[in-house]
Every structure is written in structure tokens, then in C-alpha cells.
Amino acid sequence: MKTYMNFVNGQPVGSERTFESLNPATGEVLGLAPISTAEQVKAAIAAARAAQSAWAARPDAERKALMMQVAETIKKNAPYLAEWVTREQGKPLGGLGPDQVPGARFEVWGCEVWTQVPASLDLPVEVVFEDDTRRDEVHRKPFGVVAAIAPWNWPLLIAIWQMIPSIRAGNTVVIKPSEYTTLGTLELVRLIGEVLPKGVINTVSGPGEVGSWLVSDPGIDKIMFTGSGPTGAKIAEAAARNMVPTTMELGGNDAAIMLPDADPKAMAMGLFWGAFINMGQTCACAKRLYVHENLFEPTVQALKELAEVMPMGDGMNEGMVMGPIQNKMQYDKVVSLVESAKKAGANIVCGGAPKGGPGYFYPLTLVTGLKDGDRLVDEEQFGPVLPIIKYSNVEDAIASANRLDAGLGASVWSSDIEKAKQVAGRIQAGTVWINQHGMIHPMVPFGGAKGSGYGVEFGLEGLKSVTRPQVISVKK
């Protein structure tokens, strides 16, 4: 059984204690990951600190060129990395590019693109005021050492979202992968770390306490976190003690609203992937669908026809579109929510029962007959289950979309774009898509509202978020 290593100061680092990483489709042990000690976490932070000044002092053009070398390294190793995603996270291999089945190859392609885009962006000096007496400029400076905590649902892509803008801006990074998907992320960092100077990017790994040591350390200058609200609250508490700024993406319970003039058949595929990309294990999935009563039956039928024909199985087998739920904790939560819906009198349109056999496979499940207040509507399922709720009045649908504390994304579906935009403007979410859902882009800021976090990633605003502004004011 191979034991994988952390990557600190350009060198592999092991630990006396290890834990197993499992294939969620088969239960196979893929390898052993190190459990970092508190001393090793401090050593990783120290390595990042020692490297940061020289890294920030490099000419911007050099950092941009190295980012493009990182992108090329990802591209060259894409088959290897995609297999890690499939075997460890579960999403099928799928295809490449935005128009293909969004599986592991898509995730690695996204890593390449989300590396190239920050490398193409500039943060020039901004002259914010000038007259005959003074000139005021805003310069963008790196924070220093960034702590990143990556999740298990998109283990490579979200790690890239956290790491690449940070180092592009002159920071150095210590990243902790999820304990459920550690090995693939460690391999990604090892490969791209070989392109970069020692200490620019470092890893620690292990259970939640390792992440706690990382974000609580006074040597950290900025925190990037994607994960659950309760964990985010703990990180925010730790950050507050050291006055450390954070970017938090805390998941959501995205509402999708089909207006009375929507076209169920034409929009079914977009709705389907908006809800079920990555088996519904995406923060910005549509997790509750509100459909006008005049469209309800044809919408349910169109989604049912799609859900029942999507191939599900071990993602290493070509042709698979759906994989397993990534871990037993999440699997048990999905089962519990569906069972609670049954007890509440819901109608299971399709799916609704564990598949059995090895792996955490759960069928694509559509549920009707629920209302606001039922667990499956109010709690983020983060799995392959979609409650579809009937409404009569658009005002009621908007109120339903806004009633929860979650506010990451939402969508409005309509044949009338102007009408849809009016509804979208009233929804309390960081992003509201029209006639699509979850369609992020590396140039478009992305972040949550309310309990879904704060701060943004992606594009110029995302790059600014890993810098601090410094005003230089000159008297003429």
C-alpha cells in the first residue's frame, strides 16, 4: 500500500500516522495519506513565510509566466489527475470542455483554465483622485501567507481556485485538502509545486484538527475556505482572534423558479444539469425547484425522462454519467432526508431507495408533494435528490426562494428575459442565473450572500480579494 506525502518547501514530507483514502464506488483503499502534526503545520507555515518576500518581489511578468507553466503542467498530467478525481471523489471521467459531460476530465480542464485566466489579468495602480494639489493611488499588495481549506466535491478545481489567484498576486500558500479526497490534491500540488520556487505552495493533511491548527496560527495572513456553514463559523471565530481576513464560500440551498411562461421541454436539460451536476454535490446546484402549477406536470415528466436514462456506475468505466455519493456521511444524510420526505407524505417520482451493492450509489431522485418547512426543502441535501414544489403566485415563489438563510445562487427560467431579470433582481443570492444554473465563469465574480458566506472569487474582483489595498498619497 503506497503512502503519499505532503509537499513542504519543495520536498516530500511524511508523518508517523496515516489514514486511508477510499474509492467511493468500490470501497477500495487507494493509498495512505499522512496526518500532519501540529509541528508540521507550523513548519509548512514557516516555509511559506520564508519564501513569500522573494516571491512577491519577482517581476509581475515572471509570476504570470510561471502561472502559464503551471497550466501547461496540469494539461500534460491531465489523464493522471482525472483518474485520481474519479477514483477518489467518484465523478465519472466524462468529457473535456464546457459542452461535454461534466466529469473528472472536465474538472481537470477547469483547473487548466482557472490557472490561465488569473495569469492573464493585471492589477495596475489605480489613480482614485488627482487635482492640482495631490495625487492618490491605490496599489495592490499581497497579504503574505494564505491558508486554504479545500472541500471534497471538486477537490482539484476548488484547490486551484484558492491557490492560483493567491500565488499570482504574490502570496504563498499552505493548503489542507479534505480528508475524504486527500491524495489527488496532494498529487496536484506536488506536480505544480515542482514548477514553482520552494515554499510558494505547501500542503498539510489530516482530520479537522489539522485545519484548525492551520487557520488558528498567528502566521496566517488570509484564509480561503469552501465548505459547510458550521465549519465556516468555527474558522471565522479563529480568524477573528487574529484579525485575519477571510473569503468564505459556505454552500447553499439554491432555489430555481420556473415562471408561468417557461418551456419545460426546452429547459429540461438545463434544469437537469443545474440540479444533478456532480451528483448534486455542488454548492451552487439547484436544490429546490419551484414550478408554476400550469407547468408542473410537464416539467416533472421531462425531468423524470432524463433522470431515468442517465447511466450510473463506477466512473472509471467509459459511458458512465453519474457516480456515487462521495462518502458515507453524505450518503446517510441523503437517505435520511428522502426517508423524512416519505414520512411527510411526499411522492417519489423516481429513485428514492438505495441501490445496494458496493459503493455509495443512490439513484437520481425526484420528489413532489412537499412544501416549505419540510426537511428536504429546507436542508441542503448535497446529493442526487431534487424536491419540486408547486406554486400559484410568483410573489409566493420569490418569498419561498428568500425565506432561508442560504444565498449562494438561484435561477429564474422564463421565455421573457426582461420579466426574468425583474424577478432575479428580487432574489437574495450572490448570483442569479437566467435560463441556466450554476454556470460559473473564470472572469465572473462568484460568492455568496447571507449564510452562504462572504467575499468573492474569480476574475478581477477575485484577484483583488487576495490582495490588500495600499493608498499612496502624494502632495504636489
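the 2nd protein, sequnce then structure:
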Amino acid sequence: MKICVGLSGGVDSSVAALLLKRQGHEVFALFMQNWHDTTGTLHGDCEWEEERAVAEMVAKKIGIPFHFVDLSDTYRKRVVDYMFDEYARGRTPNPDVLCNREIKFDAFLQDALRLGAEKVATGHYCRVDTVPGADGSPSYRLLAGLDPNKDQSYFLCQLSQEQLSRALFPIGELCKPEVRRIAHEAGLPSADKKDSQGICFVGKVDLPLFLQQKLRSVAGDVIEIPRSYFEALPPRNTLEEKAEPFVYHREDGTLAGHHIGAQYYTVGQRKGLNIGGHAESLFVIGTDMARNLIFVGEGHSHPGLWREALRISPEEVHWIRKECALREGEERPYQVRIRYRQPLQEARLICRPDGLYILFNEPQRGITPGQFAAWYAPDGELAGSGVIDR
């Protein structure tokens, strides 16, 4: 089989290519450049020239052809512009999920197919298999990687059946130490390379500085909401009430300080507030974009950080296998995560006319609009996902 490996210069994709070559496949490497601008990036992180050089050395060591494609314009339009739009709305996006859906398994996939590939392989720690679909044709399942510390299935939670039908994840059955060992034994130049961090293909950034490329900085007030505020609130009994974010007003708290722009802050954030004089750290518990206000609470256990449920709008619900989808009025238990590396949480998915609700067995900290919730079956299948609306 002719397989294109998305070779990034990291150890994971390098070992993926090596394993496929050893299996006898016709393998070629395709390196994609997705970012030029260094505004807001922290020096030394995700420099694509270095990544490309390492990727070329890996391809030469393995003995496979090396190709290059510049997808920076597509990446800016489909991923970075989406980021700016979401932050401008006071929501917190996950660009890595979008990068996989829009770039790696769409724009990049199309380039790989034009070069003759039948499949595209990446160094993600996840798995894919097939089961008979409703019409008897193959139905592709996305499964968590076997390394519990590196499972990256969450980042692929928006992939479609067509995308999964072209995808291979050669290291999904391996743990990271084993991947490193294979790379060392093969003498791969990427064997000791550190894992990339930060925004996919951009790297670690000073987020306010990065966002200031399009979002103007406007100073505003930080309002501290006391715990006593919640003692006066009526209990939340219905599902809809449990999923509703708390809404604060200036008069509900006291002035604690000032900020550089409400769009630069997200629920659960601690760093960057620069407000002292408290026994415990302050955390962002809400934002008001219209009035350019940030609301904060003291302490990790502040009630403003915790909720029992969330909602996903109907148009944002994505089932990887359509036969698994809930119908209106149905509900089903799943394990859910609302951010990468969060331990799976027990919950029930409840399908209502106004959206899909997720009711957790235990309250969750920092439910953040704009992030993705992903739900898993007991056998590790990632069944679906959606953008958190509230």
C-alpha cells in the first residue's frame, strides 16, 4: 500500500514512518509548513525550518522520499481566523482539534492523495478499526491510544467517516517509552526530540500579544465575586438550569483590579491576573464582553468554577458513527472529557430539542464555552464530540 506519513520532525511521526516501512509498505514523507508569522511566539519554539531539517534527515535515514507543502494560507483561514473570531466572542477555542479536522485530514490529505497515497499516517497516540455499518459497509471507529498518559484521540474528535477511512495511526498500540526506544535503536535523528507544545504548528505563544494582531487591547475592571453571592441563589433543579452559566454584574462584587481586555481571559484561568492581597489564588469565573468586565473568585474550590452540566447546540453535535447518534428524547451513559488530558468523567448524554446536554455525576471545574466535549464508550471508542455552547 502507498502511504503518506505526515512527518513533522518529531519522534512520534518518525517512528510511525519507520514501522510502516518495516511492514513493507511504499512510504513517502510529506512535511507541511503551516505558519510563518512569529508575532507573539516565544523564541525558540516551533521553528519550522529546524523541524523541516530534522524531518528530511529522518526520511533519509529511513530511506523514503521526502516532499514539502506550504499550507500556511489555508491554516490561517481555517484555524487562526477561527481562533480570533472565537476569542472576540468571549469563547475559548481549541485550535488543535480544528487543525486535525481542517488541515491534517483535509487540506494535507488532499495533497497526499494527489501524490498517489492511498492512506495518510500520523504519529497520534490513538487507534482506528472497522465494524459492519448499518448497511453492511465498513464503519470506522476512533479508539483511545493504549498509552493512558499520551492518548490523543481527543484532538481527533471531529473527524468524519471519510477522514477516518484514510487514516492510519501506527503507534496507537505503543507507549511513549517504547516509541523512544525504537527511535534510539534505529538511530533516528528525532529520537531525543522534545514533544511540541502550544498551539498546533504555531508553538507556545504569549496569548494576549498573539491575539493583539487582530483584537484591540482595551483596559477594563476585574470584579471579585464573593462566595456569599452563591448562598443567596435559588437551587438549580432542572437540567437546563444546571447547564446555564452563572451571570454576574458589577454590583455583585467588588473592584479587585484591572485587565487588558476581556477577550484575553478564559474561565478557570489563574495566570495573568496580577492581583495580590489574597490568601488563595484568584481564578477567572466569568467574562462580560459587552461591558469588558472580568469576574474572579478566590480559591480553587470557589463555587463559580463548578457546574453539573453543559449544553451543545444541535448544529455543533458530531457523531463519528451516525448509527451511534442519540435521537431526541433519548439518553445514554458515557465517559466524557472537556479538555485534553482530563481524566474521563462519568456522565449522561441527554438529547433535547434545543441541543445535547451532558449531565455529570460529579460537578466539573472550568466548563468553558468554545472548548470541545468528547464522549467515550466503555471500550474506549470516542463516539462523538461537540463545541460547548454553555
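The chain has three domains: 2-210, 217-305, 306-387. Residues 294 and 340 are 25 Å apart (CA to CA).
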